[in-house]
Amino acid sequence: MKKYKLYIGGVLLSAMLTGSCTKLDEHVYDKVDAASFLSRRDDVIRDFLRPFEHAYWSIQGNDVYAASEDCTDEIGTYNRQGDWQDGGYYQRMHYHTWTITDGFTSGAWTNFYQGIVLATNSLTDMEGIKDPSKLSVTDAELTDFKAELHTLRAWFYLRAFDFYRNIEIVTDVKTATHGNPQSSPQEIFSYIESELKSAIDGLPTRQQLGAPGIGRWTKAGAAALLARLYLNAKVYIGTDKYAECEAICRDIIGGKYGAYQLDTRWDAPFDYTNTTLNSEVIYGFPGSLARTHWQYDGGMFFWGMTYDAAPLYCGFTDFSQSNPRYALQPGRDVDSVEYTFQLGKPFVKFQKYPDDLRLKKYKNLGNSTREGMFLFGYLPYTHLVNGVSRTDTVKGNKGPYPLFIRDQVGMFLGAKPGIKIADKESDMNHADHNSGVFLVKYPFYPTPDPNRITSAYAEIRLSEIYYTLAECRYRAGDKAGAAGYLNQVRRRNYPDGSSSLYKSDGSQLTDQEMLDEWGREFIGENRRRTDLIRWGVFNTGTWWDKKADGDKHTEIFPIGRDIMNVNPQFKQNPGY
């Protein structure tokens, strides 16, 4: 098996994004026969890899990440004294009051379908190669390329299915002259399932690809997507597939699709070493400072900290200032009294097990290492004043006072910790720059650390397979089995001998604890909305200032007005 390292090229990606692929009734891409432009091996490789470039960007582009996270109980984009008010755009995400004119409703569709179109285009090219030897490509390589493109396209379809449910199947982009009507959820489910099952035999294992294969789809990657599909089948098509889900998870853990092992450090899946063969990352997008690094961009984690935290506190100066777009939702009111609702309160949920290693304040320790996963409290730093080293504290952009970041949302301004303020209002439209603990999932090592911004984005981790299997066992009434699978991952989060591990009989596990544990392990990883829906609380639950929805129609997003205007065959999702 030849090894091709997947680099994500920012220049080519930028060029791609200037076009649109939402008009599926038009010829977005040319009709040139593959034989006329695939004249050598390099042409085939470039054609094969092109959709992967868009795929990496798509994890956060067009506000996909914002829409996925801000509508849940873990992350919010607050109106910070006018910053991020944005006409109530992010507030509508939080309160589930979005409309068909909100940008993300069309943007996410464009995001997913541009990937589907690109993958289909490249797949058609691959299928048009009748004699691969003339292009210095082996039959095995061509089989691999086609299987990976089927898998990549299925990944896009699964995400679009989860977002919108009533979507279109597109399998021809070179000769089609018009779009298609939407298919039923059952048809979409069966199509994705068939695509993944058919692709697995033609896919390589990670071991065959070697370390450079971090961005390539493998047997385990496709199997993991099947597990995601089956885990949520009850929501998607009204029929549970937990037995099928459990079987495929056991096969992945058992090595049927390649050898993987859990990382022994909580931060390893997000560190620069996560591209190696002994990492638990089953599928990831490779990042680097010199090329692309979308999870480190403003659409995701770089704008998950206060303005000067990166350059002053972390010592990371390559990107200049951050911008506090994302923070955890609060677990306490302005008087520091814990809220009584069961959902949300993500930082409090971590504090339930106080010896959790992730609870330490984020700090770079040198030699490409760090501790802690959150930014809170004062953020001190040292600098030179007239040649003398001075200690200062990070400030905001709305006043000269030092910030004290807290698990609360309100107008604290320059109030010192422990001092009660008169203004008791706490909601999405009433926050300052002290409000909300920040999540630092991927490290921001200081400039010029050679390993800064080189972590791959971990789209699928072996931990997800363990948690999925645990949920299947829990739903089958086997709490002891569920606790055992969860603890295999959780033990790295606590010191040796910690009492925070679940009891062997699983007696601590409830629906709420299972959902809380999903939230702790996968916080900020773009899956919370799906988990809340699967556990039946996305619409009925309350958290912080978010009240229950009037009905269940917000479980799926509306199809944006721009998309509806393109294809007259489309029907808007119910309730919009």
Assign an overall shape. globular
Structural class: mainly alpha
Measured by DSSP, the beta-strand proportion falls in 5-15%
Helix content: 25-40%
- Give the count of helical stretches: 19
Strand order of the largest sheet: 1-3
Low-confidence stretches: 7-32
**For the terminal residues, how far apart are their CA atoms?**
49 Å
Radius of gyration: 24 Å
Pfam families: SusD-like_3, SusD_RagB
Domain RagB/SusD: 430-576
Family: Belongs to the SusD family.
Keywords: Cell outer membrane, Membrane, Signal
Question: Strands, helices and their partners?
Answer:
Layout: H1 10-17, H2 34-37, H3 41-57, H4 64-70, E1 75-76, H5 89-95, H6 103-127, H7 139-164, H8 185-200, H9 206-209, H10 219-231, H11 233-237, H12 242-253, E2 281-285, H13 309-314, E3 327-328, H14 346-351, E4 363-364, E5 370-371, E6 374-375, E7 380-385, E8 388-393, E9 438-439, E10 457-461, H15 462-475, H16 479-490, H17 511-521, H18 528-534, H19 561-564
Antiparallel strand pairs: 1-3, 2-10, 4-5, 6-9, 7-8
Helix pairs in contact: 3-6, 3-7, 6-7, 7-8, 7-10, 8-10, 10-12, 12-15, 15-16
